[in-house]
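Quick question, first post here. What does this chain look like in 3D?
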Amino acid sequence: MLINISGLMFLFLIFTSHSGLTCMFTDSVRLVDGDGLCSGRLEVKSHQSWTSVCETGFDQQDAEVVCRELGCGTPVNLQGALFGEGKHPFGTKDFQCKGTENSLLTCSTSEREEHTCAHGKAVGLTCQYVKLVDGSSRCAGTVMLYDKKWRTVEGNAWSIKDAAVVCRQLDCGSAVAVTNKNLEMTTSKDDVRISCSGSESGLKECAVHDISWSLSSAGVICSGNSVPQKEVWRTSGEKND
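> Answer (accepted):
Ran it through. Tokens below.
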């Protein structure tokens, strides 16, 4: 998928894994066998071969870099074997990211003491690249899309089909209504325009175009109001500081 952002072209590749699930990847990292484009078991390319990553030593800062590299926003869930064990061997490096790097392979690494990984410890990661803000619940509000940064979605062409994709992606039920928030005529922003068929599982499957300004921002009211998991958690249930 080629996205035009402020005159620059960024390439995010989408493929269908052996299990039939659609995945997001770059030439060095990918999330596979997940339940959406930005979730799955983490795999890293090393010496032209894909390897799994062991959860031991993989922390929130590492997850932040992966989500950013994939254009997938921020991490919301980090859990071992959440998306299976996979068929690839485990890598021999532990990543030591600061959280500000643009790619996982630019992070510092150290040699893992154990070259094997316990069963149930393959890194499973879910990133969030769409969120609703300034609403009455987490399933209502102004739509924000992550493309290198959090950006407002232009509201003039926003439709119930587009809104349906957002509600589905956020596990918020169906779209009840679309909303538009008027912006100042003089506002100059780096917004995006979205066009969906309504059947997509997430906004990254829709057509995304950058625009220099807009007169309104898109919003949605979904039928659900479930509470999201806002922190990155380990399998044990303890927060990863």
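Residues 60-69 form the longest helix (10 residues).
Confidence is low (pLDDT under 50) at residues 1-22, 227-241.
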